[in-house]
Amino acid sequence: MIHAVIGYGRLARALVPALRAAGEVVVVGRRSPGAGELLPADAARAADWVWLTVPDDRIAATAAALPWRAGQLALHCSGATSLAALAPAPEAAGFHPLKLLAGDAGLAGVHVGIEADAAFRPALQELAQVLGLVPLVLPSPMTEHARAAYHAAANLAASGVLAVLAEALALWEAAGLAPADGLPALTPLSRGALDTALARGLAGAVSGPIARGDAGVLTRHLQALATAGLDADLLLALARRQLALAEAAGRLDAAQSCALRASLAGQ
Ligand SMILES: NC(=O)c1ccc[n+]([C@@H]2O[C@H](COP(=O)([O-])OP(=O)(O)OC[C@H]3O[C@@H](n4cnc5c(N)ncnc54)[C@H](OP(=O)(O)O)[C@@H]3O)[C@@H](O)[C@H]2O)c1
Fold first, then answer.
1. Which residues, judged by CB distance below 6 Å to any ligand atom, belong to the binding site of ligand 1?
2. pLDDT digits (tens, 9 = 90+) for 163-188
3. C-alpha 11 to ligand 1 mean position (Å)
4. Which of 8, 37, 53, 101 to mutate to test the pocket of ligand 1 (most atoms within 8 A of CB)?
5. Contact between 209 and 221 (Cβ < 8 Å)
6. Whose CA is nearest to atom 36 of ligand 1?
7. Overall pTM surpassing 0.85 (yes/no)
8. 65-78 pLDDT per residue, tens
9. Looking at ligand 1, which atom is closest to the CA of residue 56?
10. Which of 131, 68, 65 is nearest to 95 (CA)?
11. DSSP state of 107
């Protein structure tokens, strides 16, 4: 079987070497092909499976411009995009690695959402396993509500964490500490929390003043935000979620929960 990968961006730069390493034949289709590469239409003509690894809002137009023939399978890697975007192709499937790819890391060990009908599901699950991915079979067809929730979950787990770190860095700088030290000092804390969460679950991993029932420290954190001229919305929303986790873990008695809720309500 021959794969065409159309659009050689961050996802393709992880997918193509992985496919080749697994012994699959891959042609790369690009708008401006380099040595050993083809134009998208020529790559698609040569292939059985055609991967559209272009920006999400270009998937439908790219699919519409390709010369399809019976038996070909079109795939996209966008957790946010319906298979309807691949409508001009005879068959369509989704294969979404749940990883933020920036061109410097492979796919091994990553979960991959697979959206396909019964005819192609087994082959895609098998491919996922061959590539060292963990197949995650999604409902097919997937409702738009479910798709949006699935994609929002993935985005929150990746870029949402970056937004939290941006807030942490703003506080770091408000403390008068060197900005260059911020990320190297703070990201091991994130990593440690994530590793613990994977081992013990979120409630089992939550720590810090809220998990200890220390309302005084929480109040001082909120005052620090105000002094720095920073909006308290994000910290308050995160504090409420931490409180729920700490309560679920049985870490707080009624008086501690009450004092923490009073600190949060005081804002
Ligand atoms: N990056 C990730 O972390 C990640 C993770 C999971 C899923 N995905 C999905 O993978 C797909 C590709 O994402 P990506 O991050 O690899 O994007 P990307 O780095 O922006 O690369 C997309 C590629 O598409 C081509 N392209 C750019 N603009 C185009 C246009 N206007 N019309 C047609 N082709 C165009 C370019 O390739 P050529 O110059 O070779 O033509 C470009 O390198 C998306 O559906 C995304 O949701 C990405």
1. 7-12, 30-31, 53-56, 58, 62, 76-78, 96-97, 99-101
2. 999 999 999 999 999 999 999 999 99
3. 7
4. 53
5. yes
6. 7
7. yes
8. 999 999 999 999 99
9. 45
10. 131
11. -
Place of tokens 């081992």: 199
How many angstroms does the Cα of residue 98 sit away from the middle of ligand 1? 15
| Token pair for 39 | 């134009």
How far is ligand 1, taken at its centre, from the CA of residue 208, in Å?
Answer: 39
The mean pLDDT of 92-99, rounded to a whole number, is 97
CATH fold for domain 2-142: Rossmann fold (3.40.50)
Please tell me what DSSP assigns to residue 66: S
Which residue type sits at 260?
Answer: L
Q: Are the beta carbons of 52 and 28 closer than 8 angstroms?
A: no
The strand ranges marked E within 37-119 are 49-52, 73-76, 91-97, 111-115
- Look at ligand 1, atom 6, and give the residue with the nearest C-alpha: 97
Does the pLDDT of residue 12 top 70, yes or no? yes
